[in-house]
């Protein structure tokens, strides 16, 4: 890899570290494990950077695909099934103000994570793609290998489930 590519990869790293971290963290809801996985993802990306073709996919899409595949491999290795954690476990996993990811200290973010922790990883994943990554339905459809109507329906169901969870947790505003 020549110096030009190293600098370009460094720029990509700086631009996409936080979105990749957010994606991974929202999938597993554990800070230390997310940090380890994100490090692995960027090592994979750096090692594959010579073969990256911007004509085929944006850096964002390319990194997202690496992250998604790495998480799939991680789940397979762990033979993990989706686990549902309590609100207290979610709040314990939230980083302190000394961490770079201190924004989670906000009460709204704590509530969001408490609700998201009750979703299956694939439900969290589609919401992350839609609202964190800001992908359009056709992009999500391509990533998941489903049609756009199915994307819309999955997003709708995940949002409805979030509403039900919030209501069950007493977090809704309705009397």
Topology:
Blueprint: H1 3-28, H2 31-48, H3 59-78, H4 87-93, H5 107-116, H6 121-132, H7 137-144, H8 148-168
Helix pairs in contact: 1-2, 1-3, 1-6, 2-3, 4-5, 6-8, 7-8
Could you list some keywords that capture this structure?
2 domains; globular; 175 residues; mainly alpha; Arc Repressor Mutant, subunit A; 70% helix; Rna Polymerase Sigma Factor, Chain: A
Report on this structure.
This protein is an all-alpha fold. The protein has two domains: 1-80, Orthogonal Bundle (Rna Polymerase Sigma Factor, Chain: A); 95-175, Winged helix-like DNA-binding domain superfamily/Winged helix DNA-binding domain (Arc Repressor Mutant, subunit A), CATH 1.10.10. It contains eight helices and no strands. The radius of gyration is 17 Å and the shape is globular. 21% of the residues are buried.
| Terminal CA distance | 61 Å
Please name the CATH architecture of the largest domain.
Answer: Orthogonal Bundle
Major beta sheet, specifics?
none
Q: What's the number of extended β-strand segments?
A: 0
What would you call the shape?
globular
Low-confidence stretches: 1-6, 89-104
The CATH H-level superfamily of the largest domain is Winged helix-like DNA-binding domain superfamily/Winged helix DNA-binding domain
**How many individual domains?**
2
Count of alpha/pi helices:
8
From the helix content, strand content and strand pairing, which structural class follows? mainly alpha
- Note the beta-strand portion: under 5%
Q: Tell me the radius of gyration.
A: 17 Å
Helix content: 55-70%
